[in-house]
Amino acid sequence: MPTSIFEGDDIARAVEATIEKLDQVKREIGQVIFGQERVIEETLITLLAGGHALLVGVPGLAKTKLAETLGTVLGLVEKRVQFTPDLMPADILGSEVLDDPGTGRQNFRFIPGPIFAQLLMADEINRASPRTQAALLQAMQERKVTVAGHDHALPTPFHVLATQNPIEQEGTYPLPEAQLDRFFMQVNVDYPSAEAERRMMIATTTGAEAQPRRVLDGPTLLAMQRLVRRMPIGDQLIDLILRLVRAGRPENDAIPGLGQQIAWGPGPRASQALMLAVRVRALLSGRLAPSVEDVLTLAPPVLRHRMAVSFAARAEGITVDDVVERLCRHVA
């Protein structure tokens, strides 16, 4: 027997119920976050696909506020860690301490760290040392941590929303490629429009600020994630995703001259991420099946952190987003 309407045999009915709930989620978030519709959409896509998001932007663009709001609206247990250069792995994962209950027998007891949450806010992740950044690798992929040789399962669902300042700012450490690949999307956060900033100024300085309400909970979010994997996707769209991702690898000669501009390209995780992401975007748009437009729209946030341009390309002013745009033109 299905545990909720989102898991029934009637996929169309489950999709309709999900669309209605997600409309409520977007309305609640929109009361607090102004003028960042694309950022909200891409972050929601990441969570509904079961992944982790890297939010990149200069300070003051509501990245932390968005994570806190999502924790409230989605009904998740949320914890926040401020990453600093002196932060140690044990400060995130937890540690074992020698426990003496007074019986004459001493035992080691594990004290969980803040990573034991359903939504972990890793604030300014690139301010911590590579050793501390690497503490998240196992957790993000395997949903567990190993301390002193013992495995400890993380709560479900488990998601990491990490914020990052641009690496050209002082005091930052670029994330290693292995960790970047574990982020489902890199969401670039830009400045809001003049109208959105005006609405934000009025709403946040006049009277009490709006407080978001809870719309979902952990089990419902998990049911929606399972529904996403049941949504149909056509063979033509699968082939499109495959051609797009494979064309972004240096050894591929599908686009003349492009391989020389790429230092390293996206691996199979990029194809998997796009397969899930386009389904979620269809849901958020009120559709049962994804389209080519979904693939082309989501290619930049899915691919940009899984690729790097060559030294020669950088010298010519070519960026990763330029390469992704060329890939999209090639497969469209």
From TrEMBL:
<feature type="domain" description="ChlI/MoxR AAA lid">
    <location>
        <begin position="260"/>
        <end position="326"/>
    </location>
</feature>
<dbReference type="InterPro" id="IPR011703">
    <property type="entry name" value="ATPase_AAA-3"/>
</dbReference>
<dbReference type="InterPro" id="IPR041628">
    <property type="entry name" value="ChlI/MoxR_AAA_lid"/>
</dbReference>
<dbReference type="Pfam" id="PF17863">
    <property type="entry name" value="AAA_lid_2"/>
</dbReference>
<feature type="domain" description="ATPase AAA-3">
    <location>
        <begin position="52"/>
        <end position="185"/>
    </location>
</feature>
<dbReference type="InterPro" id="IPR050764">
    <property type="entry name" value="CbbQ/NirQ/NorQ/GpvN"/>
</dbReference>
<protein>
    <submittedName>
        <fullName>MoxR family ATPase</fullName>
    </submittedName>
</protein>
<dbReference type="InterPro" id="IPR027417">
    <property type="entry name" value="P-loop_NTPase"/>
</dbReference>
<dbReference type="Pfam" id="PF07726">
    <property type="entry name" value="AAA_3"/>
</dbReference>
